[in-house]
């Protein structure tokens, strides 16, 4: 390193982005493109793996389907972003440092926290020990290996939200000799309109998935689950899709978090307790006029872009703008050739219009495949990443429906 470069690094404004998921990648690429000509700004992206984990496709990995290897360092080539591979073990919000598992520390002036979420296996005894999750590509591959050895038997998907539905359908399609049970508190597709919900149930029925709703798992055992009320349901494999939890790092750092451990943000996505920290994606508790956003890729990518735009504005001495986002769809795959897409109002309530069948499967695949090319476009044209539905009157605080 030249003396000149060292001096520049010492005086530079360091932006450290934690997590290269859908939100963190959006923040890194967008910010790099906006500060390209500012030699006094250094952007560092930290992630556990070099491979981009396409979480939207982990139920495919979990059923033994091979996905493209998407390399984060390759995507970052030419952007000026420094990539650090490693596991973050602590954030010291007072000292403005991040501790890595190899014990080295990274100093920051501005932090973007995008460490995502993992399956909530802590709230039910036995889930962490005996249930499979989609927390990482590795976890999905462990499930795939288990299913490949199964040859029949019962696979229980515990959690009847959209991830649980996609998982149950995918497993039933790939392993028709297995009996798949989708079990949860809510009826699958409860947030959809009657037509979409009816289609969903018919598809699950066609795939041979047994649906049990209105039940709650009290304990996961090595070969069964126990429901509240005491009933035991045998299962050779349990996949846990019953809600998510957030890494305890943010709370341990003293950042203000909500009851689920998400960083509470102001309207510009800055931590309310530490404004030099931006929170994005699943790890952020972001309030809109309709309530708190829930973790999705469709909302996560805009949060990353908005944080980057805000940081770039702040570096120029401007004020960041308020973040606004409205939902527009809930696409759900039902195996590889079928899907249902519920179009939504900005507050995520269902519209009358939905897509089903092959057209819906094509739509879902197009949406799922879109983040990586979007990052590629943003490298050259950052403005191409700033288009998302702002939600109109639904997202104006005080004007929610
Ligand atoms: C099977 C499945 C299907 C889904 N389908 C959909 C869908 O169709 N549509 C939709 O909108 N959403 C879907 N979701 C939800 C969506 O994947 C998440 O909302 C989204 O990934 C959140 O993005 P994020 O950037 O906040 O976090 P993530 O994408 O989870 O990224 C977080 C990153 O941080 C890294 N990381 C975490 N902790 C550390 C640490 N301590 N040190 C270093 N690195 C760390 C992780 O390895 C990861 O790369 C699905 C989720 C699953 C599991």
Automatic annotation (TrEMBL):
Keywords: FAD, Flavoprotein, Oxidoreductase. Residues 14-293 form the FAD/NAD(P)-binding domain. It comes from the Bacteria. Its cofactor is FAD. InterPro entries: FAD/NAD-bd_sf, FAD/NAD-binding_dom, NADH-Q_oxidoreductase. It holds the Pfam family Pyr_redox_2. Belongs to the NADH dehydrogenase family. This is FAD-dependent oxidoreductase.
């Amino acid at each position: 390193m030249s003396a000149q470069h060292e001096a520049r690094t010492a005086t530079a404004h360091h932006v450290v982005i934690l997590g290269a998921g859908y939100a963190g990648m959006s923040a890194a690429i967008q910010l790099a493109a906006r500060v390209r000509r500012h030699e006094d700004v250094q952007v560092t992206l930290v992630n556990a793996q070099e491979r981009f984990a396409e979480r939207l496709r982990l139920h495919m990995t979990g059923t033994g389907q091979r996905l493209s290897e998407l390399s984060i360092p390759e995507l970052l080539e030419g952007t000026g972003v420094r990539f650090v591979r490693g596991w973050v073990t602590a954030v010291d919000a007072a000292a403005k440092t991040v501790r890595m598992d190899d014990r080295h520390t990274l100093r920051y002036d501005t932090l973007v926290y995008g460490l995502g979420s993992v399956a909530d296996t802590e709230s039910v005894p036995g889930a962490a020990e005996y249930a499979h999750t989609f927390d990482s590509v590795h976890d999905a591959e462990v499930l795939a290996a288990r299913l490949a050895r199964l040859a029949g038997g019962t696979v229980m998907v515990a959690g009847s939200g959209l991830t649980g539905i996609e998982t149950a359908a995918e497993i039933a399609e790939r392993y028709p000799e297995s009996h798949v049970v989708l079990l949860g508190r809510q009826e699958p597709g409860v947030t959809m309109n009657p037509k979409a919900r009816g289609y969903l149930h018919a598809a699950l029925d066609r795939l041979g998935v047994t649906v049990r709703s209105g039940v709650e798992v009290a304990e996961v055992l090595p070969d069964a689950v126990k429901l509240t009320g005491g009933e035991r349901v045998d299962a050779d494999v349990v996949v846990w899709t019953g809600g998510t939890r957030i890494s305890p790092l943010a709370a341990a750092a003293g950042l203000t978090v909500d009851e689920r451990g998400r960083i509470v943000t102001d309207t510009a996505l800055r931590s309310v307790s530490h404004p030099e920290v931006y929170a994005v994606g699943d790890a952020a508790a972001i309030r809109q006029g309709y309530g708190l956003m829930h973790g999705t890729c469709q909302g996560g990518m805009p949060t990353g872009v908005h944080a980057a735009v805000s940081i770039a504005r702040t570096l120029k001495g401007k004020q960041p703008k308020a973040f606004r986002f409205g939902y527009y769809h809930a696409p759900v795959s039902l195996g590889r050739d079928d899907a249902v897409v519920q179009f939504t109002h900005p507050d995520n309530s269902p519209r009358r219009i939905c897509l089903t069948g092959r057209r819906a499967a094509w739509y879902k695949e197009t949406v799922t495949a879109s983040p990586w090319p979007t990052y590629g476009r943003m490298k050259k044209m950052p403005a191409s990443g700033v288009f998302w539905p702002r939600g109109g009157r639904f997202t104006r605080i005080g004007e929610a429906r």
